[in-house]
Structure to design on (426 residues):
RNA sequence: GUGAUUGUAGCUCAGCUGGUUAGAGCGCCAGGUUGUGGCCCUGGAGGUCGGGGGUUCGAGUCCCCUCAUUCACCCCA
């Protein structure tokens, strides 16, 4: 074991994997532009209260998973962001961007931090891409956000992802339902497990999420949220489903889908994959009309958004073999020098090639010709350009095609022309 | 936070009931070809056997502690 290791739950991404990230990020950026979402970058830390208010103090994230610290002895507590929505909303309110344009469509690809035990598909530092649509509260807005997300999956070539969707109703609906749940579960107190008992008081909806097999029977008999939705909520939900169907987006209605964050209302959704192990959620989101008020806004700001776990997305793509064709970009030319005394010439030539836009690599370590050739081969270069006694004397250099093994000796200007020809791969 | 799992070379792993200088494949470096790679051949470098303690004549192998990994629970992306 080396003396220093990456912090628990944090990992390094080396060049080959970084290429995969760039590929995925490229698709996200391109589709965001297509859908009219603009990138926002917010600080990695915020005042702790923001998350306590925004995410909800009863949630696990706030209760036990935040990296919080106090930089100044008597100063305010600061927290490494465990999710993006609260920060984005804070930024929007702080600058009052809705004052200049009443609808804001924002997206991000950002690093998040949660103090959990790492396991497959879960790290302490991880990243999400996501979108937030602020200022509109229509089924069309929710459908737009979901469609954007699903098209990213589609464009990346993902198959077999499952979209589950539910309506949580408005505040009134949820209040009535909450009481109904408490009434239903209270007689079962003896049988409930500790976390469920706690939820019974704080947030009974989340009992429905329980995976405890012993509780399944009780849970399945619980009142359905769906039966407590008023017509407005039902119409809203139907409309969202209508848009999705019309666009050919498959979904499963799941009346037990609740989601862990307090701020969701009306539509909530989640996308799961089968290749991820226990942590099978790739992304999720919903509508959160109440968040802005929670954060001190004097007016209502309806909003909808989603977040997708980049690591889980990449993991699923890997399992589905979607990266096989992706390789690091190879240099076109490797400059090989016969003896070290030609280093200066080699550096000049290398520079000229690069200046003309040709991806060029050269030996910086003074290694043997054989090593240089092996290196050229390892890097999958298409050409080797030799600098030796003859070349220096005549000013004509030897270019070898490493695939066909053909080589010719010509002035550098001429070689650069050849290298720029499409057949050369440039 | 709880449970289980694994920890031997850069990587993937051997190492029988504890017994001489700890191995293989791949990778890396060098040479075979002092102006030419991929294949092949030869050689080489590289290991506090995660760390500490204990049992023993003797520990990579057994025991304890510790650190780390991985997976699962909880919850979530």
């Amino acid at each position: 074991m080396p003396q220093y290791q990456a912090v628990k739950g944090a990992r390094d991404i080396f060049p080959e994997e970084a290429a995969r990230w760039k590929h995925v990020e490229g698709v996200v950026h391109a589709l965001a532009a297509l859908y009219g979402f603009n990138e926002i970058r917010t600080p990695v830390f915020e005042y702790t209260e923001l998350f306590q208010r925004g995410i909800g103090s009863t949630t696990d994230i706030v209760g036990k998973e935040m990296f919080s610290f106090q930089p100044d002895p008597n100063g305010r507590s600061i927290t490494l962001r465990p999710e993006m929505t609260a920060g984005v909303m804070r930024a929007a309110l702080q600058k009052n961007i809705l004052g200049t344009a009443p609808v804001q469509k924002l997206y991000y690809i950002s690093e998040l931090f949660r103090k959990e035990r790492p396991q497959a598909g879960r790290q302490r530092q991880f990243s999400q891409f996501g979108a937030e649509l602020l200022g509109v509260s229509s089924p069309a807005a929710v459908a737009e956000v979901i469609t954007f997300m699903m098209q990213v999956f589609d464009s990346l070539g993902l198959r077999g992802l499952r979209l589950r969707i539910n309506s949580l109703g408005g505040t009134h609906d949820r209040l009535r339902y909450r009481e109904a749940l408490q009434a239903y579960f209270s007689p079962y107190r003896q049988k409930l497990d500790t976390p469920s008992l706690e939820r019974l008081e704080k947030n009974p909806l989340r009992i429905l999420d329980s995976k405890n097999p012993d509780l399944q029977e009780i849970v399945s008999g619980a009142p359905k949220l769906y039966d407590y939705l008023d017509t407005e909520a039902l119409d809203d939900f139907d409309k969202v489903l209508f848009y999705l169907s019309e666009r050919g987006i498959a979904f499963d209605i799941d009346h037990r889908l609740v989601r862990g964050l307090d701020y969701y209302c009306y539509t909530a959704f989640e996308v799961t994959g089968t290749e991820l192990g226990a942590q099978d959620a790739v992304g999720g989101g919903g509508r959160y009309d109440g968040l802005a008020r929670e954060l001190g806004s004097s007016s209502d700001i309806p909003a909808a958004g989603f977040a997708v776990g980049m690591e889980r997305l990449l993991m699923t793509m890997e399992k589905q073999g979607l990266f096989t064709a992706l390789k690091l970009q190879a240099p076109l030319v490797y400059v090989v020098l016969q003896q070290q005394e030609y280093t200066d010439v080699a550096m000049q030539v290398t520079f000229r090639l690069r200046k003309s836009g040709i991806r060029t690599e050269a030996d910086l370590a003074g290694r043997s010709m054989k090593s240089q050739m092996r290196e050229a081969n390892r890097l999958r270069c298409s050409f080797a350009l030799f600098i030796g006694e003859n070349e220096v004397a005549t000013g004509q250099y030897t270019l070898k095609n490493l695939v066909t093994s053909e080589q010719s000796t010509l002035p550098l200007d001429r070689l650069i022309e050849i290298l720029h020809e499409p057949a050369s791969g440039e």
Summary: Chain A has a mean pLDDT of 90. Chain A has two domains: 15-170+230-319, 333-424. The radius of gyration of chain A is 28 Å. The longest helix of chain A spans residues 15-35.
